[in-house]
Every structure is written in C-alpha cells, then in structure tokens.
Amino acid sequence: MSRSQFSRRTMLHGLGVTMALPWMESFPAWGARQKNQATDQAPTRMAILFSGCGFHSQHWWAKGQGQAMELGPVLKPIHDLRHKMVFVRGLYNAEALKGNIHSSQTGNLLSGAPLASGGLIRSGTSVDQLVAQEIGHLTKLPSLVLGCETSNPSVHKNYSMLYSSHISWSSPTTPTPLEVYPALAFDQLFKDKTQTGDRSVLDAVLEDATDFRRNISKQDRQKLDEYLNSVREIEQRIDQAGKQGEVQGWRPTLDEPNIKRPQDGIPQDIVEHMRLMSDILVLAFQTDTTRVCTLKLNNDHGTLRFPHLGIDYMIHHLLSHTDNEDWLTVNQFFLEQVAYIAKRLDLIQEGERTALDNSMLLLCSSMLNGHHDATQLPVVLLGGGGGQIQGGQNLDYLDRPNRQMCRLYLSMMNKMGVQRTEFGDATSPLPEI
Amino acid sequence: MFTPTNPSSSIANFDRPKIPGACAGHGNAWFKPKGVIEFFLAIAMSFVFHFSGFSLACPEVGLAANQEYQQEDFPEQEQELDAVFKRQIQPLLNQFCSDCHQGENAEAEIDLQPFQSLESAKTQLPVWQKIRQVLSTNQMPPTDSKQLPLEQQQQLEQWVTTFLKIQARAHAGDPGPVILRRLSNDEYDYTIQDLTGVASLQPTRQFPVDSGAGEGFTNSGAAQGMSPAMVTKYLDAAKEVAQHAVLLPDGIEFSPHISRRDHSDQWIAKIQGFYRQHSIQGSGTKVDLQGVQFDTNQGGIIPIDKYLRATLEYRSQLLTGQIKLAEVAAVRALNLKYLTTLWNLFNGDSSGQSLWVKDLIHAWQQSTVDAVPELTSKIVETQSVLWKFNSVGQIGRSGGPNSWMQTSSNLQAQQEVRIPLSFPTKDPQNIFLAAKEFATHQDHLDNGRAPNHETEPSSNTIVWQNPRIEFADGKKSIFLKELPKLQAKIRQRMVDHLPKTRQYLDAVSTLRTTDESAEELAANQHLDAKLLNRWVQLAGFSKTDFSITGLYTDRLAGVNELPEINGWGSPATPSIITNASPETVSFSTLTLPSRGVFVHPSPGKDSVIVWQCPVQGEYHIHGMLADADTTCGNGVKWQLQLKSRGETSILSAGELRSSAVQEFATEKPTSITKGDCVILIVQSGNNDHVCDTTQVDFTLSQIDQPQKNWNLANDIVDRIVDANPLADSYGNSQVWHFCAWDSPPKQESVFSATSSLSQWRQAILNDEPADVIAALAQRITQVVSVWDNDSRAPLDPKDDLFRTLIQQWDGPLKWLEDAESPSNAGSLDFFSDSEQVLDFTLPAYLGGGATFVTTASIRGNLNNETQEKRIPNLSNLAFQIHASVNPILEFPFQPTAPILVLTDSAAQQNAIREMDLFCKVFPAALCYSRIVPVDEVVTLTLYHREDEPLQRLFLSDDQCQELDRLWNELLFVSQQPLLTTVVFEQISEFATQDRPDLVKAFATMRAPIYRRAEEFKQALLDSQASHLAAAKQFASLAWRRPLSAAEFQALDSLYEELRDHELSHDASFRLVLARILTSPAFVYKLEDTQDIATAVSISDFELATRLSYFLWSSSPDQELSQLAVRGELVPDQAKHGDGSNDSPTSLRLLEQTDRMLKDPRTKRMAIQFACQWLHVRNFDTNNDKNETLYPEFLKLRQDMYQETVMFFEDLFRNDGSILDIVDSDHTFVNRSLAQHYGFEKLPGDGWERIDGVRHQGRGGVLGMATILASQSGASRTSPILRGNWVSETLLGERLPKPPANVPTLPESLPAGLTARQLIQLHSQQPECAKCHVRIDPYGFALEQYDAVGRLRSQRVDTQTILFDGTSIGGAEQLKSYLSTQRRKNFVHQFCKKLLGFALGREVLLTDEPLLQDIQTTLAQSDYRFSVAVKMIVTSKQFLEIRGQKYQNQSRQEGLPK
C-alpha cells in the first residue's frame, strides 16, 4: 500500500463519524474558548472539598450573621474568612438515609441519587462532573479530581467501599478515578508535550473500537465507550496543545506553574500531601486550567492517622466515634486545609476581585458527626461565586421543608452557568444563595 | 436460602441454623466418586445436569415432596404457588407487614404493595430475598409490633423459600450480568509479568487503588472507573513496559532494565552464567597499570581436581563396568564430554602420547584418590609454564597480542642455572650438574626407536659455560676452572699468617698506645701490614673515624613554596625537613608544628639522623617522635643506636602508630667517645606505605663536664640547608648527618660480647695484667689456626663461629681480596654428556651471599662455534637440565622445566607439538569469563570472547549454538560493532597526543573495524522484520486470542506511520508494543455476545481467559492458549448445548484446572481471592496500629501477611480441605513470627510449615495475626469487629443496619473494665443488643489474643454463649463450633465467595442451585478445594454468556428502582 495516498488519520476521522459515539458528538473541542470567552470577567470556579465521617458533634455551629457571626471551634481556622463564607445548616440527602452507614452516605453525596447495594455499583452523575461536562470544554481540563487518601477495595455492610472513597461520578456507573499522586496531578495540569507517536498510537487504539464494539453487549459497549471517549479527549488535548493563540478579553494571571513539580510517589507526611494537593488546586484555578475540582481530603470510613498532631492511637474513622478533644483537633486540621486554599485564592487578585471572590469552595461531609447522623449535613460555602454569593450569611434549613442538599447543587450549577431546573431530588435552587 | 424449613423446629431458636444443603444426597445419590477418573466423569456428568437445569432435587415440603422436578412441572408448581399466595400469603402480609412496608415510605425499601400475584412477585426477586433473610434471621416482625403466630410465620417463610427456590431453578445457570471487566491493577501487573517474564515490573504502581464490587473483589467490572487521566496512565504504563523490550537479532525479549548499558550487562551475566556451569574462579593476579589496579586471568578455570577425583574414586567401578561415565558425570555434576576425554586419556595407550601427557598418565595410574591434590598441582603447575596470559584490551593492534591465552613454549637454546650457596658453612659444598637427553614424540613416530648412545656421536654434547661463584656485592666472580689455584693460594696465606695471630694481636695492642704506624710496625715484626690493619679494625681499636654513608645530597629549599620549610633528600622520599616558622604549617596532608624536624622514610629506605660525638663524656639522651601526617600511613618503626668503634648498641626502639606520639629516654648515663655516633633511624612501617612523615626530636645532655647540650631541633631548624653534614652550634664541624640507609640496616658484627676477641679487647681496655691478655691472645691463635676437620679440636660454639668468620674468604680478614686474581687462560667452560653428572666441590668458607652460576646449552648452539663444528644429528636432540646441591641419581622428566633444544631444529618443532598435545587437553582456562576486559588503561576491546577450549572440550553442538546465539545477542544488544568505531577513534586521538607509535599500531585495525560496523548496520536492518513479527506474536498473547489479518496489517501500518514521522526503528517498534498494551483488547476482558435471547457458550479463547484470570489473575499461558487454538477447551456439551455424552474436551478443561492449580501462580489466587475475601489483602501495608504500643508491628506485618498467603497457596496448590481455613493444625511461620506466636520450637532460617499448632492457639485463619490484628483497633482489641467479621465474612450472615447515633466507645478502656465488659455495657442497650448478641460472643471467644494477634500472658474470660445457645470457651472451641455445627454456613459462604470471584459479579438467586451442588459434592469429597473449583469452571455460569436479548435481565439484580 502506498502510504502517501492515504492519510490514516483522515481515514480514522471518517471512521470516527461512522462510529457514532453519542458522547463525542456532544463534545465540543477544547480550545473553543477563543470564540466564546471574549469577556473581561474572570470565570467562576467551583471546588468541592470533602472530609468524611463528619465533625465534632458539639463544636460545629455558627451563630449570628455577617461580621458578628460566631463560629464553633471546629471552624476556627476559617474565622477570618467569615465575611466571605456562608454557613448552611440542615440540608440532607434523603437517599443517604436509606442504605446502611458510611459508604451509602457518601457515594451519592454529590448527586442525591439512589445507590445500588450488594455487589453492584450505581450512583448518579455528581454535580462537579455534570458541570464539567457542560463547561469543561472551555478549559484544558474539564475537571480535576484529587484525593489525599487511597481507596479501600472491600465491600462493607453490603455496599462497596468504593462509595466511601468516591464522591465524584462521571456517570451513574463510573466513579471518576481520582489522583492521589501530587506529581501526576501536576502533570495533568501542565504536561502538554506529548511524545511523537503518541497520537498515532491513540488513533490506532481508537480504531480498535470499530471491531470491538460490534460484538459486545450494550452494557459492555457503554463500559468500553468510557475508555474510548477518554482516548478521544486526550487526542483532542494533544491536537489543541500549543494552539491556544491570542485570547481576547480576560486572561488568567498565571500561564506557567509557579511551583515545582512535586516529587514522585505519595508523601509519607499527610500534612505535606494535603499541602501539595491544595497548591495544585489553587494553581489549576489560577492558571484557568480547569474550573471544576473536587478534593477529597480523606475517605469516609478512612484510615488516616495524625502523628503530627500527636494523635496516633486511632485511625480517622474510629476517632470520629470518640467525639473527644483529639477529634476536634483533627477536625481543625482539615479546616486548616480549607482555610489555606481559600486564603491562597484570596491573595490572587483578578481585576477588582480575588480568585476566591470568583470561586465557590464547598466543604461538606457524609454525615454531621461520627455517629452516622446524615439527617443533616455539615456545609460551608466559601467565596463569592463571581459576585453571585453574598458572604457572611448563616442559613438554617433544618426545620424547613425542601431542605435537599441537591438544591444547593442546583444553585451552584446555575452560578457556574449550567442552567438546570432539577437535579437529584431537588426541583429548585436555594433562593438564599 | 434453599432448604425448606422443618416445620417442627422453632424458628426463634437458633440452635438449628437454617443451612442450605440439608437435602444433600437426594439429587446426587448416583454420585459416588471412586478415583480420579471417575471423579472427572462425575463432575462432567453433574455438569451435564446443570445444563439441563435440574441437577438439584430436594424434597419440597408442601409442594412436590421427594420428587425431582422436571421442566414441565414448573407451570404446575407455579399454579400451586400462586394459589397459596392468594389464599394464604397475601392476607398474612397485609395483616402483619403492610403497615410499615407499603407505598412511598416503605421501610427498608421493602414495598409489598406491588405484589398482588405470583407474576408481580417474580418481577422483584431481590425484595423477596430480603424478606427471606429477615424472616430466617427472625428480624421481622420487630418485637414491638404485632407478632405472627408461629404456624403462620412458618407458612410464610416456607412459601417464600419455595417460591425463591423455584425461581432460582427456573433460570439456574444464568451466566448473569457480567459487566465488562478491565484488568484490575494486580491483574495488569501479573499479566505484564507473565507476558514479559520480568517479575519486577509493576506498571500500575501509581494507578488509583482498585475498588471492590460484586462479591467484594476488585475483579468486578462494576467498580472500575475510567477517565482521560486513567487512559494517560494506561498509555504511560504501556510505554514503560515497551521500554523493557530488548531488540535481538531474531526477535525480542524483555528485561528488568531499560538502558542499553543494563541490557548489555544482563547479557554478559547470561554468558557468564553459561561459562560458570563448567568452570570456576581462578586466582587472579593483580596488575598495576599507571596506578590502576586490574585483575587478570581470573575465572574460566577447569575444576580439574573434581574430574581427577571422579576418575580415581570410580576407577575400579568404571573399569569393571559397574558404573558408567555418564552416571559418574551426573552424580558429580561434571561434564560428560570432558570426563570421557580424561578417562580415555588416562586409560588409553600412552605410548603415542607426548612426554607431558605420558608423565601425567603415569602419575594417574600410580595414584589413588589421596593423590588428587598432588596430581592437580602437577597439572596446574605445568599449565602455568606452558600457558601464558596476555592483556586483552589491545588485542589486535600490530605488535599486540592476538589472544588472551597463549601457549608458551618452554623451549630454550640455553638455560642459566643459579644455585645459592648457604652461609656460613664449615664444610665444602657440592654442586651437581647433569643433562638428560630425551626423545621427543616425533622421534618415535619418525624412527620408532629411542636415541641410541652407542651409535650416535655423543661426546660432550652439553656445554656448561663459565661455571662460577658470583658475589652479591659485585666482587669479582670466582670461576670454577680457576678455583683450585685460588684455593691453594688462600690456604697458603692462612697457613702463613693465622698461626701468627698472637703477634698480630700484640701489635694491635701496641698500636693503641704508640704513634707508630701499622705499616712500620708490620715491617718491624714481619707481619703483613694489610692484615694487621684488618685486625686493628676487627678489634675495634681503629683510629680512623668510621665513615657515615648515604648522606643526602639534594637540598630541599622552600618545600611547597613555603620558605620556612627546608631540608634534605629527594622531593618525594626519603627526606628530612624542618619548619622554621613560629607557627604550625599545614599543606597537603601534613601538619608540621612550629620549629619541628620531620623525617620521611620511604619503603626500603630509612630516614636517618646521625649525631657524631664531638666531645667525649657521659650523656643522658631523651627524645620524642610524633606522626605528622595523620590522614594516612600506617605508622613507622624507629631505633636509636649508639655506634661505637665497630660495635653497635641499641639505646631505644619502638613502633609509632598512626596519629601517635612517643617519648624515649635512656635509663643510665651512656658513655660516648669522640667519633662515636648516636643514630636515629626511622623506618616506614611494614615497608609498605608512603604517608609516613614523622616529627622527631632528641636531646643529648652531657652529665660530666663541660655539661654541654645538643638539641636536634634547636640546633638545625634555622640552618639545615647550610651543609650536610652540619656543624653544631658550638662550632664543632660535621656533627649532624642526614642520611638515607637501606632498610633493614646491614647486619653488623657477629662477635658477641663473650667471644674470645671481645674478652681480649675488654681486658686491654681494663688494663688487665699482661699475662691475662697474653693467655687470651694465645687462645685466639689456637682457635683461628685450625682449619681442617681432622685436627679440629672441640671448641666453644662461640669460638667456632668466630673461627668460621675469621677463615671465611670474604670475612673481616678479607683473604680473597689479597689473593692474586686468576689469569684468564683458556676456556672456562665444562662439557658433559647425557646422564653424566658433573660434581663440583666448592671450598668451605667461601662466604655469604654467593651464588653458583652457569649456563647450559647444546653444544652446537654456541654462537662462537661454526656450523661445521656442530656435532651432527644434534638437531634431533632435546635435553633437560638437572642441577642440585644433592647428588643426582636419576633423571626424571620434569614437566615444568625448560627444554633445551637447538634453535630451528627438528627437536624444537617436535617439542612444541608435544606441548600442544598437553595444552589441548589441559587449557589454562576454558574461556575468558570476564568478557569485559579491564587490563589496559585504554581498552579497544569492549567484549572479548575466547572460549574455544570450552566449546571443543565441553560443549555439544547445541550448546555451542546456544553460546553463539548469546554472543550474537550481546553484540546486538550492546551494538558493540558500532561502539567499537567510536572507541577506536577515541583511542586514535588519545594515542596521537604522545604515542605516535601506537597510532601506527592501531592503524591496521581501522579497516576491519569499520567493515564490521557496516556489516552490523546491515544486520540491524535485517533484524527489523523479526521484531515486528515478535510484536505480532506478543499481540496474540497480550490480546489473549489470535489476531485477524486486518489487525496484523494495522500493526504494520502503525509502524510505517511512525517511521514516516521520522521515528527510529527502535522508537517505532516500542510504540507498536505500547499500542498493543493500550488497546482495549488488552486492557479489557472483552467477550463477544450474540444478538439472541439465550445464553450461549463463550469461545475457547474467552474460556481460557476466564480460567486463567480465575486461577492465576493473569493471561493464559502457552499450554492453555494452544488448547484454545485447537478448540479443545470448551466442552462439547457447552458448544452444542446438549449433554449427550462425556466429552474428552471437558476432561481437558479439568486437566488444565488441575495443572494450573498446582502452578506457583496460584499464589495470586491466595492473594486475590482468599486475602480479599478475608479483608487482609495488602495487610503488609497496614498502617493502623499504634506505634507506641506495638512498636514491633511494622516489622512483623510483612511476615504476618506472608503466613496467610502461604497458608492459602499451600491449600490451593496441594488441594487441601477448605475446612482447614477455619480449623487446621498447621500453619506457616518464620522465626520472628514463631516468636510472636510464642511457639515452643522456633524454625530455622526461612519459612516452615509447622504442624501441631492447634494446642498453641494457632491453625486456621482465626489464629492468624492478619485477621486478629486487622479486626482490632489501633490500641486495643475489638470483640465487636472480630465478632462481626466471623459473622459476616466467615458465615455470610447479614446483620441489620446499626441504629443511627450509636453511642460511642472510648478507645482506651475505662479503669476497671475489660474490653469485654465495656462492650457488654454497650450491648445491653436494646437497640444495640439486636445485633450484638449475634456477633459479640464470637469476639469474646477470641479475647485471649491481643490487638496484634499475640496470646495474652494473663488468662482472660473467653467463655461465652453464642446466639444459638451454644456455650463455648476460647478460640479452639469457636473453631470447632464453626467447622462442625456451622460447617454448612461456612462452606456455603466459601463457595459463594469463590463463585463470585470466579465470575466477577455478585452471586445471584439463580446461582443457588450450583452452590447447592458444590456443597453437596464437597461434603462427599473431603472438602477438597479443587472440587469446588472444578464444579465452578464446568458450570454454565462459567462457560456461557448472556445473549444481548437475554430475558430475566434485571428482575433478580439488585438495581435501585
């Protein structure tokens, strides 16, 4: 065969159309922001920070409003930020009350979806991934999904522990794999230079799809498409790399990473690990590499220990059952991470606002406290959402109807430019936010 | 649950747990396994039944009892079920359950509203399974609700059970919904390891941790997410694996390494491994080249002693044929080929052999096994003479060596003989010289006779040139021809003068007190003046200053450009320097304190300071030494001597260690005469180091008048370079002398203080009476004037020695010096014939250090003889020289001695041939096992191959080919021919700088090197096709199926495309590999489905994949794949959907299962299945324990994990009983774990299976630290966790959901409470008690173990009453309870988990008939593990896949609404 006559890639693109992958059709090429983003406004970003097993039962509270707001000891690290914070009490996920404990309270935290039990895995597409699927094409990465604790592979109380360690779901059956290696997370953001030939390899892998998809079941086809779509996405990133050109209007305040690539491997020290992941989150927002991020500080039912706090006799999960002073100390440690991210963002000036003003940081957990109480969830929202959120609020929904957590997600989605009228078990956003 | 409830049993009573399998024996009554074959058949047949869907038959209470169901029965049964439902069940549900379980807010998601008929009930089977569960565990109705009458409760439960059972059977064998499975991380790693053969590869180490689904295993597709980030990881992982491919001349191989350098090293190691099979390490010699140490001549040696030992030990048995050589070779791990060669050699006809070989054969034939060392050294010594080694690095350059190992002709035209003469001796010495002519091999062949001395002109064939006695100090030699004359002369002189000794001594005495010169006195007294002077000197009365030798002549001014550092000596060493500055000066490694004196000896040369006394007196001497170079050196030795008139005494001495300081002082005043010398000698330690700079100082204080002081440092520091010798500060000239003397110092006088001469001297010094002196002198005269044996009177040994010295030709009286030199008249040579012994007698008293020297040659070889003078036929002669101080009586062949032949003679050629015969069989080395030469500073040869002897003597043709292949691969992998051109150019440039001669020498190599490089480039090109072919083969393995032609074509196209992108072959090829591994065909276990409504058999390849991932968590191996290729794996019944006959192919499947279970890869099943099931996978990274309380845990967790893995690996591979999991009497431990467990007997190194552990609290998983620790808290045990684990994990019980807001438990125990009491407190609360009464007692029974699985030293209360009322105490009773009373629950749970793992999905209602079958068969087959595995792999579930339109898709799967 004379190769000069055919460009295999052309052929493949032809095939790509006939393959009729539904997701691909609805996937605009990244880089299109040249067309769409001729605005002077910095974009709104959204981060969801998760810490499992709840917080101290006595010390998570807020009283009063605005500058006069008082915060419980758990929230002490974000005390300075309360004018840019909304404290939300009393939201819950009805589905999380149906299953068992832990996993079934976590796996649907960001979707409010019913969970499959036994050996099956099914939840709902989470709010972050839904937003990413809508606006992800505007940035290099649709979303960043980070974690500071590796998953537990077993099944607990008839629910896969996968639920305990995955809050982000890119489809009802696909928990988004999360990155726990700081160096690899960093590479996701900045490693643009693919090696010669990678593109050809990926083309070839995609080409397999035509044959392989033909004879497998519909269900399997969906599973395979997850892979193939991911391949497509990488290919598009390769194609777009270096083609960014002149951007009209707002530009991120940073083009290049201002921190070094972290070392390979997982840091032994949990403090360092969280710090690196926090820095990467901030960097991702500052460089506008993505606008959606979830950072799972620990697993629900997690096994982190805290020798640096002098609390080494119990793992995180068991500690949550003690409700003692050490538990409070550990809670504060997690809030310090939240405060760190918020303050770093608040130092980045983007026009008149700071990056924090242009962001929404949602801190949430799977339960209110260590006793598996999911009838109300601990929720704090930091940042102005691009001027769309009034700080200093203390909202209480506990004794009100329609206190679905998904209403908050609807609110957040709307502020991200994703207009929806219903999500999970909610049919309207929270008007106060 | 599958068993009907016995209506008579109390449902509330748990002493009769509802266990499936109670009907065992009915359905399978025909099944009586006898042997292995029958068993296979039985399995196969039961499998047939599965396919028909009625393998099970149990009596059904209330419905068709004791009757096997037929397909056509179902409608009938269903009708009946429906009727019962409407008549009895629905009203019951309405009455007792609907209050809570109806509509939107139905509790626990059990909504009974939709169930109005049997048909509607059938749509939601999971709900009914839940109902069965709560009923069977007596959870419903709750105690605070209206209770069902017992009879109705039984009725309800019975109906649900039967209903579910019929539903299960209706769709029994449903393959179920198996979601497309990606390789789990571990599977990916294992698969890569198996595909590449590189066990160290772990490409997924940075992948996100897998999650569990299905029955809790990571191999379930449901839990496997995917994202672009993940795909990137897959691509990177694939590229990483591709980096490990090594391109070979004919295909590829994978390596643990990725660099060319490492690959080369790997192949070198392979070749060295090959070499090592036959050879051993030799003792290499160190070579120092330009300061670099190289080992040479190491390795590749034949272990000849082993071969000799074998031939001698088995000689008689071999000769009588009792044993064969092959057997000996096998027993002794020797090479048969070489052993045979040696055996035939030793036992063959020696007549045709060479002298060297013949000599050896003779020795072997005379020897027993005791002589092995002797024979070995004979061979090794001969080898060392007949072989020589060259350096390898520059082989090939002109003038350079051609090979590493070279035969070394031991032939010589002449041979020097040197025999050292001993000293002193009183007796004449004899030297015996002889030459032996021998016949070379060629003579025999040519003439068939030995040389005949009768007829051959053979007179004086050997010339002994100039036999002489040489002296070490360069004195004139004494030629033996002239010896008699000389001897006579000296004798005469002794006879003339020694009897006059008394006169000489008197004259010496006289000279001491007069001013008369020796010459005058000698003339007056008719004495010899020279001799008199020697006596004066000998007696120590010489007036002349004794001379100080070895003075430094070179000044060292401003050492290291420091003006204050000066001295004498060589810039290197030895030397003396001083620091004149008022400060410590440091440079290089030296630290020189202010105003110090420093000496530096060098190996072999001592640094010496001499103070020659200017004023006679009594002196006190003290001083010090200190190391001035503490960074290196190994210390020095020193001596302080007083040299006084021919006698030397040691005043002080010592050894100074590195960094040390030493002081010395004389105890008594020392009398020192003017001209005497005080000498400080500093000698390098062990003569072997150079960093020996030593600070020295000493002071001489005169005690008597004028009480002067001499301090070395003060005296010389400022003026050292003025002169050597240097005046003292009092103005006396030549006091300080700085010298270097040979070390050790020359031996001085041997006269002891008690010798006659010393006594005489002392008597004179003491002014003793003349008669005393005269008597002593007379005695001396008597002593010295006796010189022959006959008249020798017995003498005091001291005087005997004295006489010997006096009479020694070279002694103090120097007789030889005075003897007239012999005239050089005529030839000084001697001549002899073969076997004629020349016997020379040398005179006694010849002197020390003398050597007898001569040079032997064949007469015709002498240069000064003309061709005509040559004796005819000498050309055929060869000789060996024998020279000895002992009489020569015989003339044996000396294999290591040189051979004398005439240059260019026939004998020379013959001898060379004969040596070669030996060398052929006994090479000094078989091969150059270093491969990489390091014996030249600059090396042209990168890899040196020299293994001809190995190939010729040891290897078969196949082995030679293998070796060739390895070498070819090494050159290919390392690209040596290309590299050589680079090296060549480097060397050329390097050499042009200062060695133009080398440029020339290398020039001839240029063309061949470049030619080989070109040839290699072509070879590289030629190999490319084979790499692509290998990639395709790899793809078939990686994709676990043959590739289609189009797929192969696609691989080629990708390669071409990549080459078009200007990527190299290497890079493109690796990307093709990466592409293969990134493909979904590798990453996913794809299985084809058809667009039909039934389940159909999977393909042979898919089955092979299912099987190997089930048993090995990896891809099928060669054997399994080949069966798949031949289509022999899937049983025929499955293929055709009929169960008509026993198929040999289902036997294949079972055979493969057996084979695979026995394979070590089954260890992965232990990890992936057993450890995951028991929640201890990756226990070796468990980080949950409080390090303060359990500091040993981190060290032990790896061992703990290993125990569990080994236990299961053993059980799986050796087909153990699954009941052993609960209760066994053995386990596996190493020493540290055995200590942890407190075992009575500790194992040795490594791991051991230990039996009889039950009474020590171990055996089964409940005795394992992994389980006990992982189900504990960080700092204490948790009976709840352990109990819950027993209940859920081992027994498969499902517990109700814990209440919200459970009260918390403190981590540390409140004072006065045990863990158990604390929990009991907690569990008394009613909402908690519901569960805790079911789980806690199990935990209590295990309380004797602490949180890391140790037995507590204190006995704790482990007595408890289980939920079913059984009373037990301790772990042992718990185990026995579990393995007997609860056996069926445990076995069911095990089978369920195993099935879930095998299928990669949750176990469904429709799997229950299969589970039931397995349990029944297990009970009949001693619970052998393989039984369960085989029934699973032959089950419909395992062999089939649902069609795309399969009915019953969702109604039995627990998807949320």
How would you describe the overall organization of this protein?
The complex is a heterodimer of chains A (433) and B (1457). With 433 residues, chain A is of the alpha/beta class. Chain A contains 13 helices and 15 strands. A 7-stranded mixed sheet of chain A has the order 5-10-1-13-14-4-15, with helices on both faces. In chain A, strands 2-3 form a two-stranded antiparallel ribbon. In chain A, strands 6-7 form a two-stranded antiparallel ribbon. In chain A, helix 1 (8-19) packs parallel to helix 8 (198-214). By secondary structure, chain B is of the alpha+beta class. In chain B, helix 17 (501-513) packs across helix 19 (529-539) and helix 28 runs antiparallel to helix 29 (996-1038). The two termini of chain B are 24 Å apart. The model of chain B is unreliable at 1-71, 441-458, 745-750 and 861-870 (pLDDT under 50). Chains A and B meet through strand 9, helix 8 and helix 9 of A and helix 7, helix 30, helix 31 and helix 32 of B.
At a glance:
Chain A is an alpha/beta fold and 433 residues long. Chain A is built from 13 helices and 15 strands.
Write the layout of secondary structure elements.
The complex is a heterodimer of chains A (433) and B (1457).
Chain A: H1 8-19, H2 22-25, H3 33-36, E1 45-50, E2 62-63, E3 70-71, E4 85-89, H4 103-106, H5 127-135, E5 144-147, E6 155-156, E7 159-160, H6 162-165, E8 169-171, E9 174-175, H7 182-190, H8 198-214, H9 218-240, H10 270-286, E10 292-296, H11 316-320, H12 325-346, E11 349-350, E12 353-354, E13 359-364, E14 379-382, E15 393-396, H13 405-415
Parallel strand pairs in A: 1-10, 1-13, 4-15, 5-10
Antiparallel strand pairs in A: 2-3, 4-14, 6-7, 8-9, 11-12, 13-14
Helix pairs in contact in A: 1-8, 7-10, 8-9, 10-12
Chain B: H1 36-52, H2 73-96, H3 118-122, H4 125-136, H5 150-170, E1 181-182, H6 185-196, H7 228-243, E2 245-248, E3 251-254, H8 260-276, E4 285-289, E5 292-296, H9 304-313, H10 315-319, H11 325-331, H12 336-347, H13 355-366, H14 372-386, E6 387-389, E7 405-407, E8 411-412, E9 414-420, E10 429-438, H15 441-447, E11 462-471, E12 478-479, H16 483-497, H17 501-513, H18 518-525, H19 529-539, E13 555-557, E14 565-569, E15 575-579, E16 585-587, E17 590-592, E18 597-600, E19 605-612, E20 617-627, E21 636-644, E22 647-656, E23 661-665, E24 670-672, E25 677-684, E26 694-702, E27 709-711, H20 712-716, E28 736-742, H21 756-765, H22 770-784, H23 797-807, H24 815-818, E29 830-832, E30 838-842, E31 850-858, E32 878-884, E33 899-901, H25 906-921, H26 948-954, H27 957-974, H28 976-994, H29 996-1038, H30 1045-1060, H31 1065-1078, H32 1080-1083, E34 1084-1085, E35 1095-1097, H33 1100-1111, H34 1118-1125, H35 1132-1136, H36 1144-1158, H37 1162-1173, H38 1193-1213, E36 1226-1229, H39 1231-1237, E37 1248-1251, H40 1265-1270, H41 1279-1290, H42 1315-1323, H43 1326-1341, ...
Parallel strand pairs in B: 8-33
Antiparallel strand pairs in B: 1-34, 2-3, 4-5, 6-7, 9-31, 10-30, 10-32, 11-12, 11-29, 11-31, 13-14, 14-15, 15-18, 16-17, 18-26, 19-25, 19-28, 20-23, 20-24, 20-26, 21-22, 21-25, 26-27, 32-33, 35-40, 36-37, 38-39
Helix pairs in contact in B: 2-5, 4-5, 7-31, 8-27, 9-14, 13-14, 17-18, 17-19, 17-22, 18-19, 21-22, 28-29, 29-31, 30-31, 33-34, 36-47, 37-38, 41-43, 42-43, 45-46, 45-47, 46-47
